[in-house]
């Protein structure tokens, strides 16, 4: 094949090398717009795994690269005057300039033609496509090739919020990858610093747009900008200067990071690689890793697949998964730094943990493998903050108190509809279901949404708190749980609103009944879907009646013996239908602004708080994101909703999302709703519960230790395993969980099996 590689960075050079190693007969030319010794970055970071992949592909260049690596194992975080160090992270760095020279040398040895100062205009790319069998577009972040064929590649470029500048220094950071956070007169500024050769380190300075504007960096020259950065970080630079190698750029050289995604990576005989195809934020240091490993993969596929089209298809299929995984981690990391000022008041221990786990690639137990000593000290700190000084248990087993309710741990059994009630009355099914989960070790067990009136039921199988027999059935459960377990019980009360009079969950969710439908209410006459009946827009008399139904249900819950009460104001039900503009079309004082839309829900919540005993906690569940952009409730509004709930003496907000409209487009994933809890907790100071695709003890501990929530709710795991909490404790060798006395023989066997690395099956 005759191959042209556009771009002489790591992607273009290493693809050329890999192709020559497969078949020396290939004619390959690398076209680079800059001179051979030009480079505008400083150091690059690779993992041991990537080094092993390079060695398997080309032992010669891998050995030369290894000779010039700087290795370090630690991460240091300097925050609030405290330097916190954790170990076991395994980094290695090399100067970008050195890496390019080594790859250039290897390319020449293999007979690859290198043409520097070859600036290929857009129009010349078409000619190259005709002249060469394959054109590799590794022409960087601002790829002309990607732009030339944009209708085929369909790029999606998201310019991120923070400003950063890429600098270097002769100050040594040879003992740790170091993050430094400095508070200035204009806001926080932080640095990412790491060594890449004997006497030089990368020093990336970053800050928010507001801080950047306040400093006036945009009007400064590079040297003026550097002088300000030297002043900010003077006590960390040890008298050394900061340096730039971007003198070709006018102005201060600060930029915003662009996240690049492309729908396709190939078009006819042109294929994208490296930053031209996808970018990964510098805070996880994986851009060069992606480029090198993609080069290895594509060269391999081109020699294994029957034709070029098949090789390109395989390349996209196989590499896209890895790229998207890294981009997901990079997005999490990017967003953490964009929102870092939310966390800078955290204790240095918790701040360090939050930083280390920001991308979700490092979990709680993974940190234990890396640095058990530091994690153990962090767990002791968490327990001490929870009033359990001297304990070294995992965060999920820290106590928690709301008003007079003391929980043994932070695990919550989420509300999960059972659809087994008869005329609103809980049955033996409910007694067994909730009793089993209370015996299973969770600190707090929720009932499913318990409706405040017959018309407020979601389905005919939903339980209620509106008749004496309902109260008696719930009291039987509360009495048993309090007598036999340490668990506490929370009654979640609500009204179905526009989603009422629908089928059982295992029939057709949210679809109207085939017969026997009852009239329904909502903020406005807006049907849940075209198939559902149009609700009556509530009048003042309806509002008064329903408010009193909530109050009556709260009083029944108190007499039944519940420890905590939650008002359901999420998921498109009645109170949620007022909060979201998707269903609230009112033109009176209950519609329009967020303040107006919250008016009636707050009337209900205040009335419930007044009826509910002052020593018992009150929670409210909200949908923090309608998943329809600015047309619905946004995470910004969710923070304001939480502030209004705080003012109404709500003790904790149960932070869910979505289910308010059929138009919603949720972004699913592990712990996908936890960021909303994180934001509310750390911007308002209000206690929160995290929910949504949380299913491992690792998830629970990571959320709690990072300060993203105070309690963690798990739903489906508790359907599959009522004893999830006890089993999770055994899995991490926690012996302090209280098991029911008749089950202790099972506990002992489970602990013995866990010690040997075995399970039940």
TrEMBL record:
NADH:flavin oxidoreductase/NADH oxidase N-terminal domain mapped to chain residues: 396-734
InterPro entries documented for this protein: Aldolase_TIM, FAD-bd, FAD/NAD-bd_sf, OxRdtase_FMN_N, YqjM-like
Superkingdom in the source lineage: Bacteria
Domain FAD-binding, residue spans: 5-321
NCBIfam families from the UniProt entry: PRK08255.1
Protein name: Bifunctional salicylyl-CoA 5-hydroxylase/oxidoreductase
């Amino acid at each position: 094949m005759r191959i042209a590689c556009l771009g002489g960075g790591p992607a273009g050079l290493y693809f050329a090398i890999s192709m020559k190693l497969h078949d020396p007969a290939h004619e390959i030319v690398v076209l680079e717009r800059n001179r051979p010794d030009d480079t505008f970055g400083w150091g690059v970071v690779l993992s041991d795994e990537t080094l092993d992949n390079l060695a398997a592909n080309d032992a010669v260049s891998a050995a030369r690269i290894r000779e010039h690596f700087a290795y370090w194992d630690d991460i240091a975080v300097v925050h609030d005057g405290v330097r916190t160090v954790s170990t076991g992270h395994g980094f290695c760095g090399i100067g970008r300039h050195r890496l390019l020279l080594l790859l250039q040398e290897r390319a020449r040895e293999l007979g690859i033609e290198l043409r520097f100062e070859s600036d290929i205009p857009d129009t010349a790319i078409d000619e190259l496509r005709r002249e060469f069998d394959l054109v590799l577009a590794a022409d960087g972040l601002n790829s002309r090739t990607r732009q030339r064929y944009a209708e085929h590649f369909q790029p999606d470029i998201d310019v991120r919020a923070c400003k950063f500048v890429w600098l270097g220094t002769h100050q040594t950071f040879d003992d740790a990858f170091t993050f430094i956070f400095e508070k200035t007169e204009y806001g926080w500024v932080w640095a990412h610093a790491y060594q890449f050769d004997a006497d030089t380190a990368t020093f990336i300075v970053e800050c928010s747009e507001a801080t950047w504007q306040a400093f006036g960096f945009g009007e400064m020259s590079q040297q003026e900008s550097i002088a300000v950065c030297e002043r900010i970080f003077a006590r960390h630079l040890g008298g050394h200067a900061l340096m730039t190698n971007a003198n070709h750029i006018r102005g201060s050289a600060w930029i915003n990071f662009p996240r690049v995604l492309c729908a396709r990576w190939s078009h006819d005989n042109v294929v994208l690689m490296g930053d031209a195809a996808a970018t990964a934020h510098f805070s996880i240091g994986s851009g060069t890793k992606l480029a090198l490993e993609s080069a290895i993969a594509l060269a391999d596929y081109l020699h294994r697949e029957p034709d070029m089209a098949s090789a390109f298809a395989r390349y996209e299929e196989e590499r896209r998964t890895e790229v998207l995984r890294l981009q997901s981690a990079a997005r999490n990391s990017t967003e953490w730094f964009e929102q870092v000022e939310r966390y800078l008041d955290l204790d240095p221990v918790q701040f360090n943990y939050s930083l280390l786990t920001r991308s979700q690639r490092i979990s709680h137990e993974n940190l234990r493998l890396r640095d058990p000593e530091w994690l153990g000290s962090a767990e002791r700190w968490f327990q001490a903050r929870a009033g359990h000084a001297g304990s070294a248990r995992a965060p999920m087993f820290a106590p928690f108190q709301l008003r007079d309710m003391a929980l043994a741990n932070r695990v919550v059994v989420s509300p999960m509809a059972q659809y087994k009630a008869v005329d609103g009355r809980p049955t033996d099914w409910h007694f067994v279901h909730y009793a089993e989960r209370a015996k299973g070790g969770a600190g707090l067990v929720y009932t499913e949404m318990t409706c405040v009136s017959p018309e407020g039921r979601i389905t005919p199988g939903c339980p209620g708190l509106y008749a004496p027999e309902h109260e008696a059935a719930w009291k039987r459960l509360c009495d048993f749980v309090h007598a036999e377990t340490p668990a506490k019980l929370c009654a979640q009360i609500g009204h179905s609103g526009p989603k009422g009079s629908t089928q059982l969950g295992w029939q057709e969710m949210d679809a109207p009944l085939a017969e026997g439908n009852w009239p329904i209410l909502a903020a406005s006459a807006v049907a849940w879907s075209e198939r559902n009946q149009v609700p009556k827009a509530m009048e003042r008399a309806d509002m008064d009646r329903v408010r009193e139904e909530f109050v009556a249900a709260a009083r029944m819950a108190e007499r039944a013996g519940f420890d905590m009460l939650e008002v359901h104001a999420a998921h498109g039900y009645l109170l949620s239908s007022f909060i979201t503009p998707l269903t609230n079309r009112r033109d009176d004082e209950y519609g329009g602004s967020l303040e107006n839309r919250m008016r009636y829900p707050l009337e209900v919540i205040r009335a419930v708080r007044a009826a509910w005993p002052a020593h018992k906690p009150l929670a409210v569940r909200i949908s923090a994101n309608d998943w329809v952009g600015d047309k619905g409730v946004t995470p910004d509004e969710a923070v304001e909703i939480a502030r209004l709930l705080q003012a109404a003496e709500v003790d904790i907000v149960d932070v869910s999302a979505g289910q308010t409209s059929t138009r919603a487009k949720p972004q699913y994933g592990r712990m996908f709703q936890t960021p909303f809890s994180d934001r509310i907790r750390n911007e308002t100071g209000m206690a929160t519960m995290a929910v949504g695709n949380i299913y491992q003890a690792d998830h629970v501990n990571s959320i709690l230790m990072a300060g993203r929530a105070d309690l963690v709710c798990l739903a489906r795991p508790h359907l599959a395993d009522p004893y999830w909490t006890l089993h999770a404790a055994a899995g991490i060798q926690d012996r302090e969980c209280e098991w029911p006395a008749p089950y202790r023989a099972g506990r002992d066997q489970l602990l013995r099996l866990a010690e040997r690395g075995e399970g039940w099956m």
